[in-house]
Amino acid sequence: MKKIFSVIAGCCFATAIHAQATVYPAPAQSGPITIVNATVHVGNGQVLNNASISFDGGKITAVGSNVTATGKIVDAKGQHVYPGIIVPDSDLGLTEFEAVRATNDFREVGELNPSVRSLVSYNADSKVIGTLRSNGILLANVVPEGGLISGTSSVVQLDAWNWEDAAYKADNGIHFRMPRLMVRSNPFRRAGGSSDDALKRAMDQIASVKSFFRDAKAYLDAPKPAETNLKYEAVKGLFDRSQKLFIHCELVKEMLIAVDFAKEFNFDVVIVGGTDSHLIAKILAENNIPVILAQPHSLPVMQDDAVDQPYKTAYELQQAGVLFCISNEGFWQQRNLMFNAGTASAYGLSKEQALSAITLNAAKVLGIDKTTGSLEVGKDANIVISTGDILDMKSSIITDAFIQGRNVSLDNKQKQLYERYKYKYGLK
């Protein structure tokens, strides 16, 4: 039996070796690099024609039309240079196959789990990561799910050996998933159940979260607590505003409760989802509450909304002065993020405003705008070079990408399979 097991284990080990994609994290930048003759989209609304950008030691050292080229020269004539795209809300690296439970590590049991850290579960070897990187997505905010308070998210860079290497900004926020305050009619609802019961239960859950934060404040204000409470300790950053409270909600009444959280606790609140945020855009702007807009390619929530409302919401928030960014849903779907932004540019936003919604605005919402999000001197060299408009799936072909100055691989499992079967059928 031992011999049989050894043979099987050996075969599995050999298969695992050959199944690994030959894509390795890039080494640190070893010398200055200058991209020349490019159309540079800074990310803050500026476009520099026939410009250059230099970077060294992972940092941008010069941007403009009169940059002295040093080190390795990358000629990007006729091409476009962009900041690396940022995914603001995803379970990337926390799941690999949705239908295989063993590959899912994004949910914890229980309702209040602020001490759960998504970062330590992040799988830097996920085959999905390469498909995002090859489309120009270089950073992602990895978010846990489940319960009322799901835990902490962290921003990762998408070219790493492990989660420690990947960490770009660890534990940047706590995620509260507000119960839905709208009950859809359900002919299969069990006898005795009612819409009023469901709404009361939702309001009770919201009240329990408020009570948790009040207790946490009392605990943190105490000079020396009798016992250490890990859950209360985990939300300390909310009270000193070093962390953000990301509240996942869609409807107006839910977002008004989110505003109330910001007022009562003086939290730095971000709304995630915000399907109906255009209806209270003025209130959100007055209270400085940003919005991470969920999947634009979806149906409206309310029956009487315009069918193209999700496409127009970004423009309406822009007009109202609300800081917003655009997200997608899930993990592998994030590779189309820039094309979602392209849709928003067809429904009111300018091309540069749409680009900001997935670069600089996203960096501001996640609290990393001092180091990334735009191509400015002193920021990390997170740079993408494309043959065409990165918001247009027809013309965008990413030729080079740099994360903190490292020229990262644009290969992925899908490209390798494409080449494999071209070879098989004599098409190479």
Automatic annotation (TrEMBL):
Signal peptide start and end residues: 1-21
Keywords linked to the UniProt accession: Hydrolase, Signal
Database matches in PANTHER family: ALPHA-D-RIBOSE 1-METHYLPHOSPHONATE 5-TRIPHOSPHATE DIPHOSPHATASE
GO molecular function terms attached to this record: hydrolase activity, acting on carbon-nitrogen (but not peptide) bonds
Membrane among keywords: no
Domain Amidohydrolase-related: 321-406
Organism: Chitinophaga caeni
InterPro entries found in the cross-reference section: Amidohydro-rel, Metal-dep_hydrolase_composite, Metal_Hydrolase, Metallo-dep_Hydrolase
Name of protein: Amidohydrolase
A Pfam family the protein falls into: Amidohydro_1
